């Protein structure tokens, strides 16, 4: 089963998780990380790292964030490069993640990423999709190493 780490500004992450659990019951491998004004990037990173390890059963973890480019998205992006099977999604809204709950058991992390972006509004994206628009920067001297 894919783990979920929902991370949003203020108390929105916990509100989303509470709504989901009200409808579906307790969601295993799912954690909320709220990002409050004044919270340091270091503390947010530690909180999200804890949530990642609590939700990862080996099938992958999906970071669900509210805004592309915001602190939760940036921290999740950095963490995803160090852990295989992690995907970062931005622009989530309750109706979309509600539709995605049943797919946690059946899809791989990359299939889940593609499905949520396809079903979402134009504001829903993923780190992977953003990287396809802007390929990684490569230094020319790295191309010509013997």
UniProtKB/TrEMBL annotation:
Root EC class: transferase
UniProt xrefs under PROSITE patterns: PTS_EIIA_TYPE_4
Gene Ontology MF annotations: kinase activity
Gene3D superfamilies: Phosphotransferase system, mannose-type IIA component (3.40.50.510)
Entry's EC annotation: 2.7.1.191
A biological process from GO: phosphoenolpyruvate-dependent sugar phosphotransferase system
One GO term describing the cellular component: cytoplasm
Keywords: Cytoplasm, Kinase, Phosphotransferase system, Sugar transport, Transferase, Transport
Domain of life, per lineage: Bacteria
Protein name: Putative PTS system IIA component
Taxonomic source organism: Kluyvera georgiana ATCC 51603
């Amino acid at each position: 089963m894919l783990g979920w780490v929902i991370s949003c500004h203020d108390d929105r992450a916990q509100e989303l998780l509470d709504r989901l659990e009200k409808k579906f019951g307790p969601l295993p491998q799912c954690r909320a990380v709220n990002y409050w004004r004044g919270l340091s990037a270091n503390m947010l990173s530690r909180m999200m790292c804890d949530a990642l390890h609590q939700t990862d059963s080996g099938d992958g973890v999906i970071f669900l964030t509210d805004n592309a480019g915001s602190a939760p998205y940036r921290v999740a992006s950095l963490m995803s490069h160090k852990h295989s099977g992690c995907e970062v999604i931005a622009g989530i809204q309750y109706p979309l993640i509600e539709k995605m709950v049943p797919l946690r058991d059946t899809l791989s992390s990359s299939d889940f990423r593609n499905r949520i972006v396809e079903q979402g509004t134009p504001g829903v994206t993923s780190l992977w999709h953003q990287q396809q628009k802007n390929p990684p920067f490569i230094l020319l001297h790295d191309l010509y190493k013997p």
